[in-house]
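Morning!

This is the sequence you dropped in the shared folder:
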Amino acid sequence: MDIATHLSQKHLSVSVIIPARNEAPNLQHVLPLIPSFVSEVILVNGHSTDDTVTVAQDLLSTIRIVEQTGRGKGDAIKAGLAVSTGDMVVLMDADGSADPLEIPRFIETLLADNEFAKGSRFIEGGRSHDITRFRRAGNDGLILLVNVLFGTRFSDLCYGYNAFWRHCLDHIEIDSDGFEIETLINIRMHLAGLKTTEVPSIEYKRIHGTSNLNVVRDGWRIWKLIWKEYKGMKQQRVVTATQPQGIPEEAVL
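The structure's back. Tokens below.
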């Protein structure tokens, strides 16, 4: 049974959220390739000064445009999530680095009794044509830190191609505004005990324009986020351990 038929029979819907800032030349490599079974495509326009919105509407007449009022990728994702309606949500970039033809792979992973389909460039079947040695070294260091602190086995951390069931949002809060958003989602999905499976994904080079990522600044934000989440986890464990336990049943007369 193909995905479209399965989704139709189960009455399941899929939302794709795409943050975009000045990505007009790249959208032709993204929007037309989104599978037809996707129920809604939401483009969050991050204060673009080019024709991002017009091009998006020309390429996909049914696209929903959300005008971002804040700043940052995380803020854009929050804005998209706030209006999305799908039972499953896919997050991807607008610069052509993420292949929309991989969306079925993410949806199949969710349909196979997983709650979070976490894209990875560094497992078998995945790779990156874009990451530099400097960025890879930084990413590896951050992955190691998270795996040690949280007991995870992540192979990738700072990658924006992910999918999850909407009900996951009942268990995690997404409250970061910048590029650290992917790291936050990964950690909080783990801490919430949501079943996570890594999905191999190929990251391509940005087709046009320059990235809004600042390696040093955003790397520092990710590092601070990791320690903040770790301290929060430790504090929660202390609170839980010191909470009074219920009276043993055998002690009740």
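Headline: The helical segments are 3-10, 52-59, 73-83, 103-111, 133-150, 181-191, 215-242.

More detail when I'm at my desk.
O.
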